Amino acid sequence: MLEAVDPFIGTAGVSLPAPTGLAASWWWPKPQVGNTHPGATYPFGMVSACSYSGGYPTGYGPYELGTEGRPVPMMADLRASGFTHFQQSGTGAIRKYYNYFRVTPMVLSLDELGRSWEIVEEEASPGYYRAVLSSGITAEITVGPKSAVHRYTFPRAQDARVVVDLSHGGLAIPYGSTVPLRASLELLAPGVACGEIVVEGAPLAVYLEIDNPAMRQLLWYDRRLMPGGSRIDFSDIRPTTLRPFGLLFTGPADAGQTVELRMGFSLRGTQRARENLLADCGDHAPSFERRHSTTSAEWARHVDAVRVDTPSDERRTVMATAVYHSLIKPCSAPDESPFWPNDGPFMYDISTMWDMYRTQFPLVTTLRPDISVGLANALLRVCEEEGNFPVGYRMARGADRFSRQASALAHTLLADLCALGATGIDWNWALVHMVADLRRTYGEEYILGGITHPITHVLDLAFGYWCTALVARRQRDGKLADELAALSNGWPAAFDPATGLLRSSTFYEGTTWNYSFRLLHDMEKRIADVGGDDAFVALLDRFFGFGADPVTQPGQRPGRAELEAGYALGRFEGLNNEPDMDAPWAYTYAGRPDRTAEVVHAGVHQMFGTGRGGLPGNDDSGGLSSWYVWASLGLFPVAGQNLVLLNAPSWRDAEIDVPGGTFAIHTRDFREPTPDGPVQYVQSMTLDGRPLDRAWLTMDRLHRGGELVVTLGDRPGAWATGSRPPSRPLPVPPASVLGAPSTAPLDAPGEPTWPK
């Protein structure tokens, strides 16, 4: 599968074929661009490296700041002023930017630093990026877990230069630059230097080696050389006083001569950066080919963990690239936390956790459970050191406090890992922080009155209490589990009985429709409160646009009236955005797996494609790509509930490596699908040769491996219509035992049972 990956998918504005049928009725409120970059990456690595144009939001590409509609170019062609490190992957408007340590190969004077050159040729594969600039210089970059290796091929030149700018960071958009607070830079020996900058509160160190020590090595400040200087220190830099600074290597070059620059990085000083470089690249240059080969092999191991059988090269490319994009973030930097002295897991670039937790975290848990355990421990350390679980975390001091989007997301990951019996986590320690975190910010209002706004936080917090009670029960703390149970069942207060939708509130990037169909831990009651299966399905049909007219998507710079008219449709966001990406599987709880098949077919085959414009919206650090991986396999994880929903796969045969071996998905009477072709429906299933008459498995059962055989047909059958996925409310003791408010919204519904 590795050879099918195309890192350019999602780097440009959407260029998918015009949607037809059901998909034509979906409305896209977010930027119509994947916001990915094609730079060199390592699976969950600390470092990425790519050409730098200053474009929004990764630093690659031609676009200016955009939060809705078609992306707006700020330059006519693809250009680069150098090559930077630490990029986001597929994020939207979160206004946090990296792109540190810009390296610029040039044959002009230092006065020209900052100008850009046209990229006349480009190539990328997992772990490798190549660009030919109009200056005649060819750049190649590969990366390791904590390092980058650049190789530049120069034309014949009197003065070939490799310039490293330590003052650079951010984007070339208004208010997009990152200014270091402090900095130091030192020349250590011919061809060897080190430096450190403090950016957004985080110290970031680099150790550099060039493979041609005969090249003259100089410091520079404000584009002026500093002959004889060996060290620069800045103790207090402000935006008004910042002048660019860095170092350069210079010397004559013959045509075709190569120069290799090796860079090790650390958040714990230059000595650790040197150690990281040696660990990644060895103690001698050149090391480009060796590092590239090792990184490529590591990517092959990860991407090949999901295998599909298809005659379509295009579909194989979409799948392979989706797996690739799903495994870039978060960045794992073990023993590198700059904010506390303890060694152990440290992770950042969990930039869109409100999207990642539904699909990407369960995929990582399936393919790399060690990474998920590391992430859980890193989040627990953040909570202990900084006072709360984050809903996003970057390489910056302080958790991302952007909390309108969601609450209690770390609880979902922890509940899944606990249900799977994950080791390597102190579950008593975890339980303490899970409980405490639920009582902060929106949680206080929820405890006191059973309601908070944005209203979506009621659902988040109720589920957070459910997850925490699960961990408490597993830790045999029955009293605590009982105390949490009533609060876990407080979600009905968020819904308006008159409409069956969430109550009027403020909604981030959506409306009450987009947030009303999440997969709750008591879908049986949710459906009953609406009026039963038929009423619930009718709401879903209206939401997904069955029988509705096609819509017109926002254009460039859409105005307020255009956006308000689109939101007023109350329509599925069609994978352009992720707040409702689990909603297609809500039909399964109402006995209509056929409807799930129809919506998923439209999403899988019309919202994803090849080429730079092959994603329908921001990839959101793999949140969108991992949706495709799961959905196209005919699986969907219900995050936090140890549950996987089943549907018609879009591959004749597929295999996914799981902790217990291989989970194989085979089909009978399969027909290769097309975007405009008919939907195929599940007629029957067997698991390891035994009939499976329900549309779900537990996640731990999937993790054990096995063989799922799916028989398909052109019309809906009776399969799974009479057996619903489990609803899992918690038993609730009398309110007098709880010591909690006995308000109506928090009363226990019915006679729930504990999940098996």
TrEMBL record:
GO molecular function: hydrolase activity
InterPro entries per the UniProt record, alphabetical: 6-hairpin_glycosidase_sf, GH-type_carb-bd, GH92_N, Glyco_hydro_92, PNGase
Any single Pfam family the record assigns to this protein: Glyco_hydro_92
Residue stretches in coiled coil: none
Keywords per UniProt: Hydrolase
Glycosyl hydrolase family domain sequence ranges: 273-714
Residue ranges annotated for the Glycosyl hydrolase family 92 N-terminal domain, each copy included: 5-170
Region (Disordered): 714-756
UniProt name for this protein: Glycoside hydrolase family 92 protein
Taxonomic classification: Bacteria, Bacillati, Actinomycetota, Actinomycetes, Propionibacteriales
